[in-house]
Please model this.
Amino acid sequence: MLRFGDYTPRDSLLHGLDARVKIAASAILSVVALTGGWSGLAALTIAGALSLRGAGLSFKEVLGAMKPLLFFAFLLFTMHAFFHEGRPLIDVTGAGVLAGLYTAWQYLALVAVGIFLTATTPPSELVAGLGRLLRPLERWGVPVGDISFMVAVSLRFIPLLLGEYERLRAARAARGADWEGGVAKRLGLAVGLVIPLLIGAFRRADDLAVAVEARGYGHRAPSSLRGGEMGSPDRRFLAAVASLALVVIVLHHALPLP
Model:
């Protein structure tokens, strides 16, 4: 099962692209999701659906990776639906429903961009690519290597925590916990897993710190299997993403859409 933050080795177009290109494309698409309005979200959704084959992923895999995060999308929708100003519609407002749909869609679009990035880029390449992108900041004393390493570790910890949660949930079910029932009951059972989940996370962090120190991180520059040159597929892909972003932003400001 694909989890958010997992790398999935496949023979696909996106897997073969340079990590810097995918990071830059993810940043551009995230800006489109945040500033492109309804037209931007619609364009991102269509582009994402068309890119599934190019990433070697299936819709079921992407939806499975999003599943643990759907609760937060529902929470965003509910908060906007009930607390947004506008004409009342039963117990909610029409403007609130639209605002909730927009915010939840925006959140899921950002999650999908992250899934495409992490599923097609090995963690080592992600660290190296981010380091090469931020390298100009080194002249101002910015610890680029440390920043890129922290970002990659943070992304890797997400699937680890999700896997730990599933393991604890299965262990609790084996001991007689009944996860069937209403949302309140399941939420109460999930809250009981917070403490062991945090303890497991701190233990993994300690193990990681020891492993990093034992491997001499920080005493030499990190290396990568890939070279520093970008090929023509990388340039064409980045140009296509930039063109899509430009068209979406122009349409957003030209059309009378919210």
The first strand starts at residue 88 and ends at 89. The chain is about 70% helix and 0% strand. The mean pLDDT is 79.
